[in-house]
Amino acid sequence: MKTIQFFKTGMLVLFLTGMIACGGVSKQDALDYNESIINGQLKVIAAFDAWNASETQVDSFFIGLTQLVDSELKRAEALNNLGDDADFKNAYITFLTQTKDFLNKEDALLKKVDQMIAEKTELTQEEADEVKKEEEALNAVYDQNQNDFLAKQKAFVAKYGLELEEAKK
Asked: How confident is the model over 106-115, as a mean pLDDT?
């Protein structure tokens, strides 16, 4: 059921190419800010992957993941803006908020399927198709969330003169 795949090899990371100021912000400051956000996102992705791959202790992985998302959301909200720029931080907050929403909806769908199976041991083809349709809709929203976040990161990178490099995993 848990079919969302995070961008494992597509995560964008930045590296320093020199120092310039952009609105009073150095490249090093921008790089540190980016790394702070991306490191948090990578923690969420790793926890999501662990939940997605789990065959036992699914509930404990889910609880850990939701707690991590909540913790990252608090950290991101407390993060100072980079100079007068809050766009990238706000994109991360949106990413986390939408991830939390996705997790709640995914959990509700899994519970619904469990309840349906408990009532009759097996789903009909129509029920299975409906569940698959709901799962695909959730995945599409989540994929758009990822794309929106990466677009904001690219804008951040361009604004501060940093270069993107694909992470190798």
From this structure: 89
